[in-house]
Amino acid sequence: MGKKNQEKEVQMKERQGKKTKRAKEEEDYRRYPLWDNYRAAFSKFRKAMGVRYLAVVGGKIGISVLRPFAAMALPSAVVYLLGSGWQPEIMFLALAGYVLALQIMGTAGDYLGNVSRKGRFMFRIGLGAELFEAALSADFEKFESTRGQQKLEGARGNIYYGNDTGIEAFLGEFENAVIALAGLIIYSVLMGRINFWVLLLLFGSSGVIMAVNFYGDQRTVKHEEKSIKVRQGYEYLKREVLVPANGKDIRLYRMWGWFRTEFRKMTEEMAYWSGRQRNCSINASLFEKALSAVRDLLVYAYLIRRMVLGDMNLAGFLLYVGIVSGFGGWMNSLTGAMGGILRNNRYMDRYRDFQEYAEEDSLGEEKVENPGRVHEIRLEHVSFRYEGAGEDAVHDLTLTVRPGEKLALVGMNGAGKSTLIKLICGLYRPASGKIYLDGRDVSLLSPKEYRKEFAVVFQEVFAFSFSLADNVSCRAAEDTDYAKMEKSLRDAELWTRVLELPGKERTNLNKDLDAAGVTLSGGELQRLMLARALYKDAPIVILDEPTAALDPLAESRMYEEYFRMTQNKTSIFISHRLSSTKFCHRILYMENGRIAEEGSHETLMERQGAYAALFRTQAQYYEENYRKKEDETGE
Predict the structure, then answer these.
(1) What are phi and psi of 542, to 5 degrees?
(2) Is the Cβ–Cβ distance between 592 and 416 less than 8 Å?
(3) How far apart are CA 323 and CA 307, in angstroms?
(4) Residue 484 in this model has a pLDDT that exceeds 80
(5) DSSP β-bridge partners for residue 366
(6) Which of 146, 145, 166 minimizes the C-alpha distance to 157?
(7) 20 to 30 A Cα–Cα from 526, which one of 16, 386, 485, 572?
(8) Which residues make Cβ contacts (< 8 Å) with residue 369, sequence separation at least 6?
(9) What is the DSSP letter of 31?
(10) Taking a C-beta distance cutoff of 8 angstroms, is the pair 357, 106 a contact?
(11) What is the per-residue pLDDT for 147?
């Protein structure tokens, strides 16, 4: 008994844990009132597309309501004309005019519908710019965090999951709901003229169908959420298998068997959740058809009785049979539209949640004093910790970088050097402490204005798949100063290589957008990044180990070139190789997010501390490898 109780307790805890996890996932983004989401979406649509599209939508709604009613009434109109006693020619002209009016309404409705769909599509695609702007204006630390990326992926669904998902479908389903509601009102008024109880039967049965469909839609949405998460994992595996860079490891370590197992698991799970979605739809559909059949049978029986008793002629009978059939169709349309609204409302929730997440931090708006001139940067008791980390990456750090100073940050990997640089240039904000630029609190300054004062070359050197000129100026062609760009490329010692390219500086790089694009070598990319930094001509230049892939001698030469080209600027050089930054005015040796030692190279060597010990170890390592190479080559 004890063992069984323990097993039950474990199972109960597991269920509670799953419920808690699901609750956290559901609460990870804000919910907004449905009508508020529609107001926000419609406001964006009206602003982007203008009044003309609103007139198109209004015309489409009007025709979509009137044309089905006119088409439904055609048989009744024919019977009425046949019994009217009119001359055949007049009856023919009347019917021809009726049919022609139907065709004109149909053509106009199709045209307006196409224009409306195109407008919603163009609006959705154009909304991508708003999403990009929100993402790029968000605090970088939050943007690159796991939570930030998850929120961004949720927001992307509102725009990039297709025509039938997100804001485009959300607006379209509202149009469909208005059309269906207007049709219901017209048909209800007509049915109410015959018998109140028949109208009540139609509304009651349709209400039950709507409630069942709503329940089914809610279940479908939950199952779809599960399916989407599994599909994301499946897409990740598929992407990783097909990346050429991963092919080496997959082949050498025989990883395909493991990938195949994971593919099978995810395929089975996707099939399971997709099946659950289909079951919800099938069950709701079966219930709807059964109840509709019973409802229509009762109403038709009533109408037949009225006609048999002489209370209704054949034309009226045909008209009301069509109304009964149309009433069910309008009700189904309204149910479907409401289900679509609810399904896509969650994408609106996530989109607006990301926008608020990106904007919720109060950012400064003050301008930088003396822009473009060398500045003093002062950090006072600055600490920073990454999300989920157990300890600070930078801890209680106080530092002053003097105007025009050449400062080196050195230390082993993970010492906090790159994190400190991201704090200094405004990509991260301190968890505690303050950063000052010429005595002014950086948090009060406009981030855009503040970042203009920095040119940073990071470790990960890469080129965008645009022209070489675009990669240097980071501006449109008409806004590029080509003389300045050429000088930057010359100073970076890349101009000779540029002249060899087929299109010179207008040559496209990489092959993502141009099959004839040129791929630069690692050293050429490093010089391209230097040219970009020189073109920006910012007063503070930071080099965050962009030469880490080079051998020590090549890195040392590259840093000396950087030093020469930034004579009139404040410069910060980062390296884990201590020999590369001996020329700097001051060297900071970092350990565990702190400044362990500070001084010139000579001072630190005389101190015989951690810097000196590591310098000798590295020097011995490089000397041994150099001798080994000499022995192997005989040179």
Answers:
(1) -125, 130
(2) yes
(3) 16
(4) yes
(5) 445
(6) 166
(7) 386
(8) 438, 440
(9) -
(10) no
(11) 83
DSSP, res 477: G
The tokens for 609 are 């501390």
Residue among 568, 570, 571, 613 nearest 589 (CA): 613
Spatial contact of 428 and 476, defined as CB atoms under 8 Å apart? no
Digit-coded pLDDT (tens) for 414-446: 888 889 999 998 888 998 999 999 999 998 998
Give the three-class secondary structure for 458. Answer: coil
Rounded to the nearest angstrom, the gap between the alpha carbon of residue 324 and the centroid of all alpha carbons in its chain is: 46
pTM: 0.72
Identify whether the C-beta of residue 179 lies closer than 8 Å to the C-beta of residue 343: no
Give the whole-angstrom CA distance, residue 368 versus residue 438: 9
Do residues 43 and 130 lie in contact, with contact meaning Cβ atoms separated by under 8 Å? no
**Dist. CA 517–CA 4, nearest whole Å:** 67
| Closest C-alpha to 119, from 61, 187, 26, 56 | 56
Pick the residue with more confidence: 14 or 238? 238
Distance of CA 174 to CAs 156, 224, 258, 265, 348, Å?
A: 21, 21, 46, 38, 13
Q: Which residues on adjacent β-strands are paired with residue 380?
A: 434
DSSP string, 334-347: HHHHHHHHHHHHHH
Residue 171's pLDDT band, with cuts at 50, 70 and 90, is very high
SS (H, E, C) 408-426: EEECCCCCCHHHHHHHHCC
Distance CA 549, CA 462 (A): 13
Q: Are 225 and 276 in contact (CB under 8 A)?
A: no
The encoded tokens of residue 424 equal 């200094």
The CA-based dihedral angle spanning residues 347, 351, 353, 356, taken in that order and rounded to the nearest 10 degrees? -170
Listing DSSP states for 112-132 in one string gives HHHHHHHHHHHHHHHTHHHHH
